[in-house]
Structure formats: structure tokens, C-alpha cells
Design a protein that fits this description.
single chain; Rossmann fold; 10% strand; alpha/beta
Length: 449
């Protein structure tokens, strides 16, 4: 079995599986072999087989805490939160001092909307393993969700040390900026995470400029045109390695996600947010407006995200929006990224009167997409990059949120400190989009009167 474990840990699943099967051929009730076969099934995308195998292992050896913990991992990936939570709690009864299990249980509580219980779990994990960046960042996310910015931003700086963070920390000879005016040279601010995050954090670029520094903004190449238009006082580049560009005169640098820790430590500090802070191409905006105008209100719609971590809970089936499509006086325009033929097929299947413009590619030409968004009277979207772009452009935007939203949307409130023109519509129960759609339908009716 030790050889099998080495194969398993190296990602050599076929080799490991063969040895586990050999162990089961000798002893069909070998619990470790069943459990580890279940883990291979999970790691290769066969969740149902994983659940079956791990449950069989538990039936034979019910006092193995790792079996219960790993079953919880599989069930959590399937969205079965209550069952996963029960597995983690059973694992902690058997072995109470495993930091990772406390962390996982905290994630369950957070997904169920119980932020206080999640914080208790994260802090217990940190007491057991103070070096756990995963637990520290999870605690920071929970604090930010509560609106405790002063405490939340501190551990956010450990995000680079977590295993699933989407961006690597850049290492430059220049120091990290601490928020003060530089004696000489320029400040490099570089984007991190995805397009939506880059857009959201760009709202603090004016704060950095107001410190008296000359700034260079390094962003995703797709954002360069609109950022250049929107921030005319700074140089906007893509791929700016200071070592390769001495002419930039970089004296310090900062990832854009660290700007809030400098400038948004209190709720009142969000009053410094300028809205709108992005500017669409006015001629393209007028072109889209003329193309779509037919006397009705133009409402842009986005309903899906492919985000591998949270996409399932954030996306909404287009058929559930049917009550909105019955309202008169609205022309619905797709702001959803994806192949236009596929989107049109989705709209037909849902009997949704949504115009899909094949000339707009939301992913490859964000400047053109921004002009399309700016042409709308209203945007209704799930939590995806469309929400951030529309909010940054100052377009009235209604964001449909799952029961346990991302930290940036906070708790309970209907507005967003990041975007003054954004209105939030929240699930009241886990997975229940129907109540959200009713709230949006009622809001549309009030707007029409």
C-alpha cells in the first residue's frame, strides 16, 4: 500500500488504482483500499462512485476520522452542505484537533449563511495551526462579508500563500508600496485575479493618484483600452516588468487587491469611490444604442458564470426568469459571454425573448462590450464580470445574489459600497431563485409606474 500511496500522491492514479484493486482482490473488506479508491474517483470527477466507496469503507471502519472528513469533501463539492457538515462534525468527534477539518466545517457554515459559526471554526483552525494561510484568509473573507474592513484586510494579505489563489505574487526588486508619496520614481499597480476583480479594484486608482504619486497600471490586455480612456493621467500597460522597462522608472509596486487595505478600512471611506470611474467609447455606445433602440427600455441580461469554484451557486437557469419576460415595454439584450449560437439556442429553449448580438464578443473585446453595456437603460445580472463592468460604468445595475454571496457584497444590505448604482437582490433561502425573480419582477413593476 505504501507504493500505491506514493503513486497516488504523485497523481499517478492508474498505477495507484491497480494496487488498491489488488488489495481488494485479497480482502474485499479492506477499508483503506476502498477509501483511497473513493478518493481517486473524487479526484477524477466521479463523485457518486467516490461517495459509494467511502461509505463502504466507513461501514467497515467507522472510527477513521479521515474517512468522514474526505466524505465531507466529496459531498461539499456536490453542494450537499448539511450532509457534508455532519461528516466534518463526526470527524471532529473522532479527532478534534485537525485544523483542516475545522476550516472545512467553517466553509460549510459560511455557505449556509452562518457567518459567526464559520468565524469560530476558522479561529479554532488558526489556534491549532497558526501558520495556516487558508484559515487566516478564510477568516478575513468572513470578516469582510460582515463589513469589518479594519480587521478583514489584514489577513487578506496572506492570499498569496493559499493553494487555490488564481494569481501569483510578483517578485520585483522594488519594495511594496505602503501608501505614501514616493520621493522619486513611479508607483506600479498591477492587476490580480480575474477581470471582475481588476475592474472592482481599479475603482481605487484615483485614491492612489491623490497621494501625489505618478502611477503605472499594469492590467489584463483586454482592459487596456478602457482603462487608458478612464484614467488619462496614468500610463496603462500590460506585462510591465520593471526590469525590462527601465523607462517606466518604477520605485515601488502594489497588487491592486491590496489597495482597499490602504484606502477602505472603514465603511465611511467608501464615500471616496467615484462613480462612474470607467468611461465607455462614446461613439460605440451610441452605435449600440441606435442598433437596439425600438422605443422600449433596453435591459441587458447575464445569467451564467463558468467559475469553477462558485459558478453553480451563482448562475441561474434562464427558464426561471420567464416572469420577467412577460413584462411589456422591455427589450432584452444578452450581455452573457459565450458562443452566440449557443446563447441563441439557450434563449429559444427557454422561450426567452433575448437579443443575442453576434458582433459582440464579451470575453475578447471588453472595450466593445463596455460600450454595449453602457448603452443599456438597466442591467440585470448574476454575480459575474458583467456586474462589475456595469457598476463601474455607472449604469443602473441589479445583481442577483445567492444565499451565501461572495464577501464583496456584504450581508443583508441592498446596495453596494463599491458601486453606487448597483442594487442587490438576494436569495432568502439556499438555492431559491424564485423569490429573487419575484423581487426583481416587483421592482420592474414599480419602475414602470
Amino acid at each position: 500500500m505504501q507504493q500505491a500511496l506514493r503513486h497516488h500522491q504523485a497523481g499517478q492514479f492508474n498505477e495507484a488504482e491497480q494496487i488498491y484493486l489488488q488489495a481488494l482482490a485479497i480482502d474485499s473488506h479492506h477499508p483503506d483500499a476502498l477509501h483511497l479508491l473513493g478518493m481517486i474517483a473524487y479526484q477524477t470527477g466521479s463523485d457518486e462512485a467516490a461517495v459509494d466507496l467511502i461509505r463502504k469503507a466507513i461501514a467497515i471502519k467507522g472510527d477513521a476520522a479521515s474517512y468522514h472528513s474526505n466524505l465531507g469533501n466529496v459531498l461539499q463539492s456536490q453542494g450537499k452542505l448539511a450532509e457534508a457538515g455532519a461528516c466534518y462534525q463526526r470527524a471532529l468527534v473522532l479527532k478534534p484537533d485537525v485544523a483542516e477539518v475545522h476550516l472545512n466545517l467553517g466553509n460549510i457554515f459560511k455557505a449556509q449563511g452562518d457567518v459567526e459559526s464559520s468565524l469560530a471554526c476558522y479561529r479554532r483552525a488558526l489556534s491549532l495551526n497558526p501558520a495556516s494561510a487558508e484559515a487566516a484568509v478564510a477568516e478575513s473573507m468572513a470578516l469582510l462579508l460582515k463589513g469589518d474592513f479594519a480587521s478583514g484586510w489584514k489577513n487578506f494579505e496572506l492570499r498569496w500563500q493559499t493553494k487555490d489563489y488564481d494569481t501569483q505574487m510578483r517578485t520585483y526588486p522594488q519594495p511594496l508600496w505602503r501608501g505614501k508619496q514616493l520621493a522619486a520614481g513611479r508607483l506600479l499597480i498591477w492587476g490580480e485575479q480575474g477581470i471582475g476583480d481588476e475592474i472592482m479594484f481599479a475603482g481605487l486608482i484615483p485614491d492612489a493618484v491623490r497621494t501625489g504619486n505618478r502611477c503605472v497600471l499594469d492590467c489584463d490586455a483586454r482592459l487596456q483600452p478602457i482603462f487608458s480612456r478612464s484614467f488619462p493621467g496614468i500610463d496603462v500597460v500590460s506585462g510591465a516588468d520593471p526590469a525590462g522597462h527601465p523607462e517606466l522608472e518604477i520605485a515601488a509596486h502594489l497588487p491592486s487587491g491590496s489597495l482597499p487595505g490602504l484606502f477602505r478600512n472603514l465603511t465611511g471611506a467608501f464615500e471616496e469611490t467615484r462613480s462612474p470611474y470607467l468611461v465607455a467609447d462614446p461613439s460605440a455606445q451610441s452605435r449600440f444604442r441606435a442598433r437596439y433602440a425600438d422605443g422600449r427600455k433596453l435591459v441587458g441580461l447575464a445569467w451564467h458564470t463558468k467559475n469553477r469554484k462558485t459558478g453553480r451557486s451563482r448562475s441561474i437557469d434562464l427558464t426561471l426568469l420567464a416572469p420577467l419576460f412577460n413584462r411589456p415595454g422591455i427589450r432584452w439584450v444578452s450581455l452573457q459571454y459565450g458562443d452566440s449560437d449557443t446563447l441563441e439556442e439557450q434563449a429559444r429553449a427557454a422561450n426567452a425573448p433575448v437579443l443575442v448580438d453576434p458582433e459582440v464578443d464579451q470575453l475578447s473585446d471588453i472595450d466593445d462590450f463596455a460600450a454595449q453595456v453602457a448603452a443599456m437603460d438597466l442591467v440585470i445580472t448574476i454575480d459575474n464580470s458583467t456586474a462589475h463592468l456595469a457598476g463601474a460604468l455607472g449604469v443602473p445595475t441589479w445583481v442577483l445574489l445567492p444565499f451565501a454571496p461572495d464577501w464583496r457584497w456584504l450581508q443583508a444590505r441592498e446596495d453596494s459600497p463599491w458601486y453606487p448604482t448597483v442594487r442587490l437582490f438576494r436569495q432568502r433561502m439556499l438555492g431559491n431563485w424564485q423569490s429573487v425573480v419575484r423581487d426583481v419582477e416587483n421592482a420592474l413593476e414599480r419602475d414602470a409606474t
